[in-house]
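Possible regression after last week's pipeline update?

I re-ran a chain I had predicted before the update to compare outputs. Posting the input and the new output here so someone can diff against the archived version. Not blocking, just want to make sure nothing changed silently.
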Amino acid sequence: MTQAPTQSGVRLSRRGVERLDLLLLTVEALDLNGGEAMLWTSHQLGLQAQFPNRVELWKRRCHSPLRRITRRDQLDSTDAESLIALVCAMADRLYPMLHQLLSSREPEQLTQQRWELLRERLGDLIEERMNLRRGAVLRLLDPASNAPTHHRLVSTLGLVAGPGGIDRLRAFLLDPTP
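New output (post-update):
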């Protein structure tokens, strides 16, 4: 497992919050019981105070401006660090699946089937939870342009798994480039 979050005072930009929420959605798309697994993992990390139940976890995730229902206030730095630790712990847990998706040694047909299943699940979650009037959300749903984004999300999860993942994810979320 990864470490519990440190109190470094991270303030995520709007883009950072969007990226974090998309990573959490990707985790849910990869794990059929993603919501429950996130809650269980948060308790394993000692984050019961931050996420005592699914509703509190959902409230923290609703700071993304791409959501249908969004919270206008800024994501608290403690909540941001807790979500970062949660994403890294979930990436550790899902690493075998991430490795299969990213591996060039797997049979091409099997890899394509896995990617198609991920695209389908992630698309369903985006349609269900995101504001479909936003251009960024429509681009995420566009089959012609979403493959690189999905690959980037899975690659990011693969990179933040393991030791030092929290620092790598924090750097990725704080990076201002699109």
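Follow-up from reviewer: compared with the archived run. The radius of gyration is 15 Å. Marking as no regression found.
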